[in-house]
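Lab notebook: predicted structure, single chain.

Context: the supervisor wants predicted structures on file for every construct in the current expression panel, including those that have not yet been purified. This is the next one on the list. No modifications to the sequence; it matches the entry in the shared construct table.
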Amino acid sequence: MSFIGSRAYRLLLGGGILGALAGLAAGISFYVLFMRDLPDLRRIEDYRPALTSVVLDREGRLIGELYEERRRLVPIAEIPRHVQLAFVAGEDSSFFDHKGLDYTGILRAALANLRAGGEIKQGASTITQQMVKGLLLSPERTYRRKIREMVLARQIEEHFTKDEILYLYVNQIYFGQGAWGIDQAARVYFGKPVRDLGVSESAMLAGLVQRPSDYSPYHNPDAAERRRRYVLGRMLDNGFIDSSAHEEALANPPVIQGPTSPSSCAATSSSAWAASTCSATGSSSRPRSTATFSWPP
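Prediction complete. Output recorded below exactly as produced.
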């Protein structure tokens, strides 16, 4: 009797068919759970975040800002390289090498979460993943959202350059004190645009983004300083600054300007703008209060 007609062959054939069907079912299940209705990447290509509207009087003096998210969009070419590298050092030191995912970090986080009984206690998000979460997905801590985030991060790395990803990241993230994006954060914390930030100031802002409330220099100055020093250390370790720049930055903590006062924000009395929102409390939550003012017609 030939092997093709044998019982062993029939068992192997049946097992192969069952395996193929199981694989097909698994693939369909994965698609339904994680891939179906993924956000369209064209939303990133047409990136138009909520921006601050600046209101001036007839002499050109600032008299108010109106916004839903207090942000000033700035091109990546206008962000000093040491500012960009501070975020890379603090959040994702392998950013320029990976393709969206840090597999070593994922394994480390998976082990930590298993030890925590399956609850998500530790993440391993790259800058690309953080950008995905901020722009395309909701922030809930679930395995389904994490897998979708990983899939999208890989897709984004195939369609966008590192500079484009970093541009989206630093303009989108929240820094506390009602500040969205790096340029607005520079103005809120230091009273200057991002192009004028030094290494020490950049390190403090890069240290904020992980937990803006916990690392606020207003509410937790010691924690903010520890994070600043951590980022500076990572910049040195990664060769982004030399030892002299590191020592100079350590010796010169940035001067933080006073928190935003209630009188510094306002909305117009025009009915078309009456629902505009501004930050009045200096808290790290999203601004939600509203005020009105008039200006000469």
